[in-house]
TrEMBL record:
Keywords: Aminotransferase, DNA-binding, Pyridoxal phosphate, Transcription, Transcription regulation, Transferase. In the C-terminal section; belongs to the class-I pyridoxal-phosphate-dependent aminotransferase family. The keyword DNA-binding applies. Residues 10-78 form the HTH gntR-type domain. This is DNA-binding transcriptional regulator, MocR family, contains an aminotransferase domain. Residues 65-92 are annotated as: Disordered. It holds the Pfam family GntR. SMART domains: HTH_GNTR (SM00345). Gene3D superfamilies: Type I PLP-dependent aspartate aminotransferase-like (Major domain) (3.40.640.10), Winged helix-like DNA-binding domain superfamily/Winged helix DNA-binding domain (1.10.10.10). The keyword Transcription applies. InterPro entries: Aminotransferase_I/II_large, HTH_trans_reg/aminotransferase, PyrdxlP-dep_Trfase, PyrdxlP-dep_Trfase_major, Tscrpt_reg_HTH_GntR, WH-like_DNA-bd_sf, WH_DNA-bd_sf.
Amino acid sequence: MIGDRPEAGGPAYARVAAAIRRLVLDGRLPLDTRLPGERELAAALGVSRTTVTAAYDELRDGGYAVSRQGSGTRSALPPSRGGTRGDARGGPAWTPWAADGSDLLDLAHAAPEAPAEVRRAYDAALEQLPRHLPGSGYHLFGLPELRAAVADRLTARGLPTLPAQVLVTAGAQHAFTLVLQLATGVGDRVLVEQPTYPNALDAIGRHGATAVPVPLAADGWDLGAVAAAVRQTAPRLAYLMPDFHNPTGLLATDAERRELGAVLTRSRTLTVVDETLVELALDGPVPPPLATHLPDDLTVTVGSASKTLWGGLRVGWARASTALIRRLAAVRASVDMGSAVVEQLAVTELLGGLDAALPARRAELRTRRDALLDALARRLPTWRTRVPAGGLVLWCDLGAPVSTRLVGAAERHGIRLAAGPRFGVDGAFERWLRLPYTHPADVIEPAVEALEQAFRAVTADGGATADPVDAVA
Ligand SMILES: Cc1ncc(COP(=O)(O)O)c(C=O)c1O
């Protein structure tokens, strides 16, 4: 994997191979691109032709290049990344929520605390509970009033939805795994943005499916790349986050949504649209849901109360055609029989008052985002990041492939981080770090001070010296 980049001083062929591999994994070298001829690359890099031959051999052995008679050597990705994260074949799982009992400041997760409304909603839910106690308490599809509240919210956002088109789940991740269980089998391909949400990659691996990464451009969706990936790999499923994409924070424009919709509709690709962060717009309106450009029978929109309100509620939903919702509910019944009634009552209450509560939630997040941007500009001015228009995180270009080492150093300075490679297929993004702005501003300043010290520690020993990628690019 990319974190295993041979240090300077390793064999030249291995460094050339590692550099090209990173270009492929970072998405800077699109799949199926013809690599330069051996003689040509040797001359460009000032190395011997044998070095390039050995580098290409290594890339082929690892699945990062294929050679075909007449079409030269072309970039590729290994068919499966079994073992780099948890999967059905028994690799070690990344368990981000593991409680390790440490007192590190958690910058690895992007989950804000509950607003005051959550406590009040639980009080209201308990008052309503007696109405439900005479019933069985089992609601496989969800409490009718919550299904209606979710449908109303989606309808108000421009996606007409009936309560029967909603399945209440234990969060968006649960909803996504139900779709995987329903629709994918071992070896199926699932198109994902690169980078993407790590738990989605984990779930795809555990179902024995293979993630097909499509690189995001610096400022949005590369529609040509999506179309090419759909054409070339015929994915069984696509998993997309057009609304404050995690980790880049990107928001798809209306035009991008239209084109994504057109590509996926033409290919009849079953699409999961993850809208977990959609309500956290900080700088302006969000275009209508991607699902408005997709057929109902091939689209599952998943949403959640986790980030808008509180992760501890464990309430999310799937929205699709009624037929698809029924099939997802049947899958769900083999796992669990429904969500807890009190939490569903609380979320119903919270959704009813969401328009009143959101301005304060957004204002606080805006303050935190700006505090983090300000602290980074002062203390780590070489890092580069786009200002996200919403969501919960900054995606920072560190300028050098030191993310994994920075995570280790940061722990020694009291900070828990998630390294960039968590967000990429097969360990891409060693130059990148995701930083949440979910902590109050007075926590952010000392946290960035600690990050600055950790970054100095890892770059002091040459970690920020020229990346061989740049020599090849
Ligand atoms: C994009 C995205 N999808 C899904 C989830 C999981 O949400 P839930 O808590 O609803 O399962 C998260 C949480 O970080 C997320 O960022």
